[in-house]
Amino acid sequence: MTFVISGLSVSNGVAIGRALTISSASLEVNHRFIQEGEEEQELQRLFDAFEIAKKELFDLKKSLPEDAPEEMEAFLEVHQLILDDPELQKKPIELIKKRRLNAAWALTTELDDLLDNFETIEDPYLKERGADFRQVIERVLVALQDSNKKEETTKYQKLDRENSEVIIVAQDIAPHDMLRFKELNFCAFVTDLGGKNSHTAIVARSLDIPAAVGVKNASMLIKQDDWLIVDGDRGVVIIDPPQIVLDEYRHRQAELRLAKNKLQLLKHTPTQTLDGKKIVLMANIEMPEDANDALTKGALGIGLFRSEFLFMNRLHGIPDEEEQYKAYAQTVIAMHGMPVNIRTIDIGADKNLDTEVETITSDISPLGLRGIRWSLSEPDIFLEQLRAILRASAHGKAQILIPMLAQVNEIEQTFELIDQAKKQLDERGIAYNPQIRVGAMIELPAAVFILPVFLKYFDFLSIGTNDLIQYTLGIDRADSSVAHLYDPLHPAILSMIYKVIHDSQDVGKSVSICGEMAGDSKLTRLLIAMGLTDFSMHASQLLTVKRELLKSDMGKLQQALNKILTTYEPQVQAKLIADLSKV
Q1: Catalytic one among 31, 79, 490, 514?
Q2: Which one is catalytic: 31, 79, 176, 199?
Q3: What is the DSSP secondary-structure string of 286-352?
Q4: Is 514 a catalytic residue?
Q5: Percentage of residues in the chain having pLDDT higher than 70
Q6: What is the DSSP letter of 36?
Q7: Looking at the chain, which terminus has fewer C-beta neighbours within 10 angstroms, N or C?
Q8: pTM of this prediction?
Q9: pLDDT tens-digit profile of 39-57?
Q10: What are phi and psi of 434, to 5 degrees?
């Protein structure tokens, strides 16, 4: 039966494919498609894990002390009965054979279905029995995970994104999980939760795939293997579409591909406005290997290297100085002398570090110990990172970018640690650029109001509009219940952005925008009107923004700015901004 559900549009385009439903529980395990021909091997891993779990239960029961409560033995016997039930393996076996899911993924899919069934039971006692199944399956999963660690490498099956038919449906997907699924080359995703500017949405745009977030109950309404159309432009998901609708959307997909191909013709065109103002377009990246993609798409530098992604999804602790140095140096060398702004680690509420190091795995609120606050609280780790960046500066134009600053003493401590890192390298006789440029993220309202301090200490500034909007308007961008209040065009936001650009340029300091606003071509003319000449965005957005810049006249646009900045009625302001497209 065809039906339509709606959420927020966060990444444009159209995707057509079959649903791959992922539950919160199943996000905890490694997901991968096994290679064709590996089915028997994966089935054996599953059977072995069951046998390990059975032996553990047998040993536990055998070792029960004589005075152990009778319930304990009965409890273990119930779990043994569940493990011995061939029905428990039936669906995972089918998923491994037919869909080539790895064993852990197949097993958690079965767990999700079982738990859903128990949720429908009204009898409270029977309903609680779902916990027994969860505990039994988690025991098998632990056995599977242990065997995973013994594997030398994990190879993901590479799918052709153009032809793939995988659309991920989940309650929510954290950015680090998104990177994990990136290897599967899914063509779209749909989530129950999330706002337009959550990090999950940002990653979707960076991957240049359609997405709809905040689609309430999507993960309950959409079933495994349902045919879906994701209309990213409207934030709409069509389940089980009729043929005529499928044909219409396939036609639209073809048109979008044609438009994308036309954009490629702009790749080597110099970026300047109609009145001759040169604009610098840089890229935001997460990993060193992204640098080559940025380069081929015409980026003139890396405006934002989110170094925290080097620290995420790791099983054996954080990267040491040497590993970080290699990653930063690889990026710097790849950019052939163009600037690379390496932002020091910026963990946050939606970017926790998944490691086994307890001290840095935590739930951090947007107002908590994050960004530079966390780095200053862990000086040894911060010094390691600073030394690694400094060493990379010997290979090109590496620059240090500091996030989340608001206090003068934080700035002073940061520079003291940078000096200390330089001294440590001097003592070790290791080369670096002693004149390395240091920049600051402007992403807190407090930073805007003490801007002269920032302009005194730092060589350049970068406006992080995502957090600046979040903290100015008091909106948690990961909270779907308030996502509609997240407004990049709020008069307070526009005034602050203009002030930072104007005051920085007034004293000859360069300033860029690296937040989501930079990559939104609908806002390009507004930012040009404010005098912005340095943009940084995901590489996939570079050509769309360039196309808009090539059609813009900065001088004429600036004449319309004053009226926009002094208008506080949203509808009037929206019309004035829309009129910029006619200038």
Answers
A1: 514
A2: 199
A3: SSTTHHHHHHHTT-SSEEEEEGGGGGSS-SS----HHHHHHHHHHHHHHTTTS-EEEEPP---TT--
A4: yes
A5: 86
A6: T
A7: N
A8: 0.69
A9: 999 999 999 999 998 888 8
A10: -65, -20
